[in-house]
Amino acid sequence: MRVGMKEKIIRTCEAKIVTKGSNVGLSFYAFFANKNDDPELLMEVAHWWIMEMKLDHFEKAEKIKSLVLAMK
Question: What is the residue extent of each domain of the chain?
């Protein structure tokens, strides 16, 4: 996954945890605008989420953040 996307996922997870608590769940769509302006990047993240990590539609932000941090 692209470095910039990893950083965005971590920032988004951290922001959601701060505002909604440590139990907040996210889908991979949380990292994108409502407008599909980068379909290749969307598919890259979707592939990682669904095919590689075999995650459910919604997962805890803390779990996602940990998985991405482990990739670095």
Answer: 3-71
Distance between CA atoms of 39 and 55, rounded to whole angstroms? Answer: 20
Convert the pLDDT of each residue in 18-67 to its tens digit.
999 999 999 999 999 888 889 999 999 999 999 999 999 999 999 999 99
Which residue in the block uniquely carries the two structure tokens 């990893």? 6
Rounded-to-integer distance, Cα 18 and Cα 37, Å = 27
Q: How far apart are CA 9 and CA 26, in angstroms?
A: 10
- From first CA to last CA, the distance across the chain in angstroms is 10
pTM attached to this predicted model:
0.90
